[in-house]
Write a structure and sequence with these properties.
- The protein is an alpha+beta fold.
- It is about 45% helix and about 15% strand.
- The chain has a single domain (about 5-230), classed as Class II aldolase/adducin N-terminal domain (L-fuculose-1-phosphate Aldolase).
- About 40% of the residues are buried.
- The two termini are about 25 Å apart.
- The protein contains 8 helices and 8 strands, in the order αββββαβααβαββααα.
- An 8-stranded mixed sheet has the order 4-3-2-1-5-8-7-6, with helices on both faces.
- The chain binds zinc ion.
- Zinc ion (ZN) binds near residues 95, 134 and 160.
Length: about 230
């Protein structure tokens, strides 16, 4: 396995674990193999985000079958395999159950642009509403990939979120930003609507500034350093 990819997967786990986004051991993250796009590397079942190691990383094919690695495969692997199949442009998938984002998945309210975090999702979110149960089959995985469509994120009613990226750095920062943005949405409701939303022209220019690949790497590297210091 490519050492850089292995290191990035471990660091992604450290960042998501430090942000307490794991929901015990239920969250998972994967990276598509840059040398073979028909397989991907994934966090194993039964461990926390911050417990990913070189030995326990699981390798899977696009049918969701385990083809290598020491850990146990997550039963929700089909979220990852079906998205990689449907979206060749994506190279990282994260599925987890963050507090504010998960409750927002069940809110039938408009997305209000009231902060920079909210701007990051101004072009829309996918919504998966077929089932609230775990995604344990290729069929339900295809349903999630279909709900994702051309979006970056799919909100899964009563369950959690699936966040994607062209890179793992992008997917991790987007997951953290989504939780911040959903927190803002919930605060808007708590403030009973007395919030001024951004102008359309501000949204356009901010979106271009925020969706910056280099900045995803800078922020990912910073959060990885911070998470490693916590472990010392
Ligand atoms: Zn789940």
């Amino acid at each position: 396995m490519n050492q850089h990819v292995e290191q990035r997967l471990i660091e992604a786990g450290l960042i998501l674990g430090a942000a307490d986004l794991g929901d015990f051991t239920r969250g998972h993250v994967s990276i598509r193999d840059p040398e073979n796009p028909s397989r991907f590397f994934m966090k194993p079942h039964s461990v926390g985000f911050e417990e990913i190691t070189s030995e326990n990383i699981v390798t899977c094919d696009l049918e969701g079958q385990k083809i290598g690695g020491g850990g146990r495969r997550h039963s929700e692997v089909f979220i990852h395999s079906e998205i990689y199949k449907a979206r060749p442009d994506l190279n990282s998938v994260i599925h987890t159950h963050p507090k504010y984002a998960t409750i927002w998945c069940s809110a039938e309210r408009p997305w209000r642009i009231v902060s920079q975090a909210c701007v990051a999702f101004a072009d829309g979110l996918g919504y998966y509403q077929d089932i609230v149960n775990l995604i344990r089959s290729p069929e339900t995985g295809r349903g999630v990939a279909g709900a994702l469509g051309h979006h970056k994120v799919v909100m899964m009613r009563g369950h959690g979120v699936t966040v994607t990226g062209v890179s793992v750095e992008e997917a991790v920062i987007r997951t953290l930003t989504l939780e911040n943005a959903c927190h803002d949405q919930v605060l808007c409701l708590a403030m009973d609507g007395d919030i001024v939303e951004f102008e359309e022209s501000d949204i356009e220019s901010l979106r271009a500034n925020l969706d910056n690949r280099d900045q995803y790497v800078v922020n990912f590297d910073y959060l990885a350093r911070k998470a490693k210091k916590r472990l010392l």
